[in-house]
Specification:
The chain is of the alpha+beta class and 143 residues long. The chain is built from 3 helices and 6 strands. It has one domain: Hotdog Thioesterase (Thiol Ester Dehydrase, Chain A, Roll). A hairpin with a 5-residue loop joins β5 and β6. The protein is globular and about 40 Å long. It starts with 8 loop residues before the first helix and ends with a strand.
């Protein structure tokens, strides 16, 4: 992460660690999200599939996958607007394949920005690299 263009990597890493620690007692932590990386306008989060993530069909619940997209894109929005509040105003989810075990990875990227809104896209893949979900989201700055 390099928000300001001149922030030292060590300082950026400490900010990310503090942000993840603050998120642990929230839905982020309840779901089991983990920060894998964040740099500039991109972030990667991961989730180890647990039995409580599955639906009655034995596959990862669509709400878990949508939450991964929203959490990863939300993280990028937070990093893009430091010190400001951002909220999800739209979330589009395209379910492509199912999964029932392993580690899921979600990569999110900022693709457009205006004065008040951010548009992002994200992908969830399984531990074999198979694309499970693709989505886009819009976020609004509310400060």
């Amino acid at each position: 992460m390099n928000d300001s263009g001149n922030e030292r990597p060590r300082d950026a890493r400490k900010k990310l660690e503090a942000l993840e620690a603050a998120a642990r007692p929230t839905f982020w932590g309840f779901l089991g999200c983990e920060l894998a990386s964040a740099d500039g306008d991109k972030a990667v989060i991961a989730l180890q599939v647990r039995p409580e993530h599955l639906n009655l069909a034995g596959i990862v619940h669509g709400g878990v996958l949508a939450s991964l997209l929203d959490n990863a894109m939300g993280l990028v929005a937070i990093l893009a607007c430091p010190g400001e509040r951002t909220v999800t105003t739209g979330l589009n989810v395209h379910y492509l394949q199912s999964s029932s075990e392993g580690r899921l990875t979600c990569e999110a990227e900022l693709i457009h920005r205006t004065r008040r809104t951010l548009t992002l896209e994200a992908r969830v893949a399984d531990n074999k690299g198979e694309l499970l979900v693709w989505g886009s989201g819009t976020f609004r700055r509310v400060t």
